[in-house]
Design brief:
- The complex is a heterodimer of chains A (748) and B (248).
- Chain A is an alpha/beta fold.
- Chain A contains 22 helices and 26 strands.
- In chain A, helix 5 crosses helix 18 and helix 12 crosses helix 13.
- The radius of gyration of chain A is 28 Å and the shape is globular.
- In chain B, 19% of the residues lie in helices and 20% in strands.
- The interface between A and B is large, with 116 and 110 residues.
Chain lengths: 748, 248
């Protein structure tokens, strides 16, 4: 029986019986095809799309991306399948960069402050005027031999932007400090001591069969999560034998959730556990490596029985981990995150990475693969940042009036420094604060002069990653769209960061020695050096062909150009006990990175609305607390709690009990509590970084951000936690019908 | 090889690879012009996510696990949402997909009631973007107005565009083509999501399905007992610490 759509509607309107009738007729397929949504109304758009390769280096994470551009507008970001670091996958942060590009609160012209500081009252000025104001100040300082009263604080900048910045600060005599709210300094220092390398090695998770990670939330936020996640997928199901992940952490992170075994340790004892595992291994193995590693015989005092109580893990469990480690063919040990954020952080990480020495996996499949130097002399990966202690000193200098001009670029020290370091009031004492931010952030919101930079999708650059792929590579960043504010004319709008510096230097009459007028030329000139190498994955008979090749592919790399040197074995050092700010406080306060990075992602609504992996909470600052502890205290989800460390500071956060939080711990996500940063972040939630005790790692002076203890007090307030959980009804489940089916794997 | 009209699109989701990172969720929102989920949308339980990560708890500290599973429209061969639509806004197309015609939808929400997977989302508000953010919207995808039901389309616009362009250029569209893949699949760093044509016996999804659905294989379907005959095949989570096969 044939039935047209119109007849069908009539029948449907007629009676319920008609619906039965219709079902008996089968689908009127031809009729439906006419209006197939696959051919409407999408089909009406016949625009052509272009995909351009570039690199994203937001928040210190390098990813190669391809951007879909239609009619001059960027529409979609995807991972570059060729790019060595992410091989096609991409992070939510890269995706959300589109919202940074088209953010409604971007700064569209140079600004000079007109009202009191922090009042958000600015007036637009021309680029000529803005550059003249900055260069006049810098020239004046230089002429009066006070050039070191100019300070440049930037994010860790590498590649050619880093080169230009280095030349700029040298030429102007300014001091340069690089800043990260959540420092990688302890990690980089420990890696340097253990492996003698300045960069972060490639961890070959893909080919490993046992990952022993300590505090490093490598699937979510640590160093290069997209790349590790790619390796993790293969580690699980890409080989004949499924790899095993043991995650040691004082908090139940996303990586802990994905581990086969989460080993909860008392905060700051990760290094003790690593030493203990080595002690077990040294007793079992007469391995020659222990002769070098432990020539002082210090391991004996770390036997499982000795450390079990302090670490909070039984001797049996420690022995079992050691057994797993020694019985694996390709074991690898990783450490970072909170394990390095204690007063003994550097010692912890050194002990952890020394496990790789025991496994003898350096430079081997499934092991730690060191990175070679940059293929372009003088252009390197971002150097290690300055430490918390150095920034603390900077705030002292500001207070003493020794900083006359502060230039900031993507380094939100107003937001990221704990209040105990007094940076906020110190900044009041700086006569001129100049920001290069393209979007308001907290530091920029108190700036006197703003020279807004392009979004990275509008700018040139190169990416020489700190955590390289184990061989030489240079990623190329190219503008994928024309500057969004181009219509404002060349004297307003935004400009590329390096180009701004080059212009300022030029107006000051300083030669940066770059033999180029634009930043693009700087990069193009150095691309010639790569071309002259005549190796790598892009080879061409002409430089023009090579240049187009690297831009199309997203970069240049040579998989054969590896680090061959075998670093000497570093003798083990002891691991001290961690110290905490406050001793009487009830909880360890564990800040963690959720969806907003170190706070830089807070302006982007996709990241704000992205549910936290564990709690599914969004848009707010919540505090993870053990659900039984919460019950005992009469705390329910959404109760507003005050978090009180011994330093007297207080923040408020919404209670979010869950069954995985250790009873003596509370966890608070980093990233909210901005005073500015646009409509999606300003005044939202609380900034956990601001209440941390100024405890530092004793070796490096980096902030021990996991070393604060705090009490909680209840308030009368309750605020609904915006979370994804329960947005859709729960599935009906019973013992026969599961949503997630789990197998022991034995039946394979 | 993919040719128009002869396909049955489907997906394989390897739960053992999924880390719950939410990369797919954001990629989907970017590709499909999903309205920004503001705080109040979450609070009213009306946030829209065509693909979502469900998190299940197991046990208590210290022996606790959290398990993740991505859930999107299962594109049922026997879809409960289809017969309840009075205006044919949702129906089965000839490529195995459950599709939603926005300009037919009158917002009865019967389909959302009918869907056992809860993957249909209703626009309770007119979607709003600040003027400048509209520059990012995908011109291949209709912005849904208030009162309209929406859900995962397997990124039908990508299938359309890539098949059309390959036909125009006389090129063969290969299995796993990144222009064909839905946005979530391309974004997934762990390769937990694989998309392809179940009608092509050589496609990756067909081969995985064949292997996984054998006795002792890891394959299963969500709520198979409902007889929905889904086009999404899940692969079981592996946990060596469990004694017997179980689940959530």
């Amino acid at each position: 029986m044939a039935l047209t759509r119109r007849q069908f509607l009539t029948l449907m309107g007629g009676s319920a019986g008609a619906a039965v009738l219709f079902q008996a007729c089968g689908l009127p397929e031809k009729e439906l095809l006419i209006d197939s949504p696959a051919a409407m109304p999408e089909d009406l758009v016949s625009g052509t799309d272009n995909w351009y390769a570039t690199t994203s280096q937001q928040g210190g994470v390098s990813e190669g991306i391809v951007v879909r551009v239609m009619e001059g507008r960027a529409k979609k970001v995807e991972g570059n399948p060729d790019y060595p670091l992410n091989l096609g996958g991409h992070s939510a942060l890269s995706e959300a960069s589109l919202q940074g590009l088209y953010h409604p609160d971007r700064i569209s012209a140079p600004l000079v402050r007109t009202g009191p500081r922090g009042s958000s009252e600015y007036r637009e000025i021309s680029w000529e005027d803005a550059v003249a104001r900055l260069s006049a100040q810098l020239t004046e300082l230089k002429d009066s031999n006070e050039a070191n009263k100019a300070v440049f604080v930037s994010n860790p900048v590498g590649g050619h932007a880093g080169l230009v910045l280095d030349r700029f600060v040298t030429a102007t005599g300014a001091r340069h400090l690089s800043y990260e709210a959540v420092e990688n300094n302890v990690l980089r220092n420990a890696l340097k001591e253990v492996f003698g390398t300045d960069s972060i090695p490639e961890f070959d998770i893909d080919n490993s069969d046992l990952i022993l990670s300590f505090g490093a939330d490598f699937l979510s936020s640590w160093v290069s999560p997209t790349r590790y996640a790619r390796g993790y997928g293969e580690f699980r199901q890409g080989h004949e034998h499924r790899g095993k992940l043991i995650h040691v952490d004082s908090r139940f992170s996303m990586t802990a959730a994905n581990a086969d075994q989460w080993v909860h340790v008392n905060p700051g004892t990760e290094g003790l556990l690593a030493m203990s595992i080595m002690q077990v291994l040294s007793a079992d193995h007469s391995d020659a490596v222990f002769g070098e590693l432990d020539s002082d015989g210090i391991l004996d005092s770390y036997s499982p029985v000795n450390v079990a109580d302090v670490v909070g893990v039984s001797a049996d469990v420690i022995n079992k981990i050691a057994e797993d480690f020694s019985h694996s063919e390709h074991p690898i040990a990783l450490g970072g995150g909170s394990a390095g954020a204690h007063t003994n952080g550097n010692q912890n990480l050194k002990a952890i990475y020394s496990l790789n020495r025991v496994a003898s996996n350096i430079g081997k499949k499934g092991g730690v693969i060191l990175n070679p130097e940059s293929p372009i002399a003088g252009v390197s990966a971002p150097k290690a940042t300055n430490t918390f202690s150095e920034f603390h000193r900077l705030s002292e200098e500001m207070k003493a009036g020794n900083v006359s001009v502060l230039m900031v670029r993507d380094a939100d020290i107003y937001y990221g420094m704990t209040d105990t370091a007094d940076m906020k009031s110190a900044l009041d004492n700086v006569p001129l604060i100049v920001s290069f931010a393209g979007m308001m952030d907290d530091t920029t919101s108190i700036a006197d002069l703003i020279l807004p930079q392009h979004h990275f999708l509008e700018d040139w650059g190169t990416d020489i990653p700190v955590a390289g792929p184990g061989y030489e590579m240079v990623g190329f960043q190219q503008p994928v769209v024309r500057p969004f504010f181009e219509n404002r004319g060349s004297n307003l709008g935004t400009k590329g960061f390096a180009d701004i510096l080059m212009t300022v230097a030029q107006v000051m009459g300083q030669d940066l020695g770059l033999s180029a007028d634009t930043f693009k030329e700087v990069i193009r000139n150095d691309a010639r050096k790569l071309y002259d190498l005549r190796r790598g994955q892009v080879v061409s008979s002409s430089f023009e062909g090579f240049w187009n090749g690297v831009l199309q592919r997203g970069g240049w790399w040579d998989t054969e150009a590896k680090e061959r040197a075998e670093p000497a074995v570093k003798r083990l050092d002891g691991v001290d006990r961690a110290e905490f700010g406050g001793t009487n406080q009830e909880f360890y306060l564990q800040p963690f990175i959720s969806t907003l990075g170190d706070g830089t992602g807070a302006s982007l609504p996709w990241l704000q609305a992205m549910p936290d992996a564990i709690s599914t909470a969004t848009w707010q600052t919540w505090v993870e607390i053990n659900h039984k502890v919460a019950e005992e205290k009469g705390i329910s989800e959404g109760d507003v709690l005050e978090i009180r460390p011994s330093n007297g500071r207080v923040i408020r956060a919404l209670a979010m009990p869950n069954p995985a939080v250790p009873p003596d711990t509370i966890g608070i996500p980093i990233g909210q509590g901005h005073r500015d940063g646009g409509r999606y972040s300003a005044g939202r939630g609380a900034n956990v970084l601001s209440v941390l005790d100024p405890k530092v790692d004793s070796d490096t002076g980096s902030l021990a951000w996991a070393a604060t203890r705090a009490n909680i007090t209840m308030t009368d307030e309750w605020i609904r936690v915006p979370k994804f959980e329960n947005t859709v009804p729960e599935f009906p489940r019973d013992e026969h019908h599961h949503i997630i089916e789990i197998t022991s794997g034995e039946d394979h | 090889m993919v040719t128009a009209g002869s396909n049955k699109w489907g997906m394989v989701v390897d739960v053992d690879r999924c880390t719950g990172c939410q990369g797919c969720v954001v990629a989907c929102q970017s590709e499909n012009n999903i309205p920004i989920n503001l705080e109040e949308h979450f609070n009213q339980r009306r946030a829209i996510q065509w693909i979502r990560i469900e998190r299940y708890w197991e046990g208590e500290y210290p022996n606790v696990k959290a398990r993740f599973i991505p859930v999107m429209c299962q594109h049922c061969g026997n879809a409960p949402c289809e017969p309840v639509c009075p205006v044919y806004a949702t129906y089965h197309n000839n490529e195995g997909m459950n599709v939603q015609v926005y300009n037919r939808c009158i917002g009865t929400r019967f389909c959302a009631n009918g869907c056992p997977y809860h993957v249909r989302f209703f626009n309770f508000w007119e979607p709003e973007w600040p003027e400048s953010l509209k520059n990012q919207l995908n011109p291949d995808v209709t912005v849904r107005s208030r009162g309209i039901m929406e859900k995962c389309s397997f990124c039908v616009q990508r299938i359309q565009r890539s098949t059309r362009e390959s036909e125009r250029d006389n090129e063969v569209l290969e299995d796993g083509d990144r222009g064909l893949n839905p946005a979530c699949v391309n974004a997934c760093a762990t390769n937990a999501l694989i998309f392809g044509n179940f009608n092509d016996p050589d496609s990756k999804v067909s081969q995985i399905k064949e292997d996984a659905m054998k006795e002792g294989g890891r394959g299963y379907r969500l709520m198979e007992n409902m007889g929905t005959d889904t086009n999404v095949v899940y692969l079981k989570k592996v946990d060596q610490s469990v004694e017997v096969t179980h689940g959530h």
